[in-house]
Amino acid sequence: MPQRYGIEKTPEGTWDIVDVFTGLPVVEVGVPLIDMPIDEADDLVDLLNCRDREHRGDT
Known about the structure:
Elements: E1 5-9, E2 15-19, E3 27-28, E4 31-32, H1 38-56
Antiparallel strand pairs: 1-2, 3-4
């Protein structure tokens, strides 16, 4: 099954987490997950994809 979340590099050199199905930035608890360093974005996208797989029952 495809992963729901991915990271995209911004022109400024930071990273955004996006929903790959909609192309929109992810917002968690009212906070857009944008303009992050790569290590933070990479960790968060792994957690979001894990949570999504569990939610869908694809563990």
